Amino acid sequence: MIDPADAIEALLDELKRQRAAGVTRVSVSTESMEFLRQVTGSARPAVSPTAVTAGASPVAAAPVSPIPDPPVVTLPPGDKTARLAALHTLVSQCPETRRHLLPGHKPVLGQGSVDARLFFVGEAPNLEEAGSGRPFVGASGELLRKILAAGLIGEELIYLAPVMGWRPEPPTPHGKRPPNGREVAFNLPYLRAQIEIVRPQVIIALGAQACEALRPGGLPITQARGKWLDFEGIPLMPTFHPNYLLHNPSATVKRTAWEDILLVMEKAGLPISDKQRGFFAAK
User: Fold this and answer.
1) What whole-number distance in Å separates Cα of residue 138 and Cα of residue 75?
2) Would you call 239 helix, strand, or coil by DSSP?
3) Contact 118, 157 (CB under 8 A)
């Protein structure tokens, strides 16, 4: 059972940390608001005066270095493979990226075909992805590959990239922390460079983090999904992240996500059989 006082204290610490990092606005989900209402309605943290010895100085919290302005990415001329290799080197040597890596973690950049027709953008790395330096590993990556296999979408057609190169730290008391605006903004030039190199036919934003990064200030993912947007002239399709499907495995949600994939396949000119069109349809 989470102690209400501890939960509120953790929330305040996180808000202070984000403010120190230059964040001026945060978004709060409906679920989080409901949790806060339950916590604040059930208990109030006891506030006790702090004893300060005469002449003693209070201990200040260690300052959090703010996220700097986004980098300007300049790559050498060459073919796609050479330019992607140069970008990987640039990110792996980026001081800001390295500053956020825990021991044993690696920068996470995209992987896939340099001639991909479909460019999938996912969330910030989780622990497993940060440890391996690869995006879409673990259960969510396995599910994504099953979805692609159902569409007969081969590895030569896809490129997979996270929305940023490091795992946001520290996590919340409830697990993984979503990235803040400054973190996403700093990493966006690296993501944009990958898109510019690959030049896919379609970009697929998997989940709210990717959708907000590519089209900030838009609709929630539940309303944006299934509707065509664009990112710098490239068609962009928002849809659910595989993690959402893992936590909401109903036939209705699966069918909704599959309909988005069918739209992507049509836009990219990929063949679709009648059998594929009927996947997850109500019987």
Assistant:
1) 31
2) strand
3) yes
Q: Which residues of 92-114 are buried (b: 16+ CB within 10 A; e: fewer)?
A: eebebbeebbeeebbbbbbbbbe
pLDDT tens digits, one per residue of 247-265: 999 999 999 999 999 999 9
Total-model pTM: 0.78
d(C-alpha 113, C-alpha 205), whole Å: 18
Superfamily of domain 80-278: Uracil-DNA glycosylase-like domain (3.40.470.10)
DSSP string, 85-116: HHHHHHHHT-HHHHHTPPTT------EE-TT-
pLDDT at residue 86 in the model: 98
Token readout for 70 is 């986004």
207: left (phi over 0), alpha (psi -120 to 50) or beta: left
Domain residues of the chain, as ranges? 80-278
Q: What are the φ/ψ torsions at residue 233 (nearest 5 degrees)?
A: 90, -5
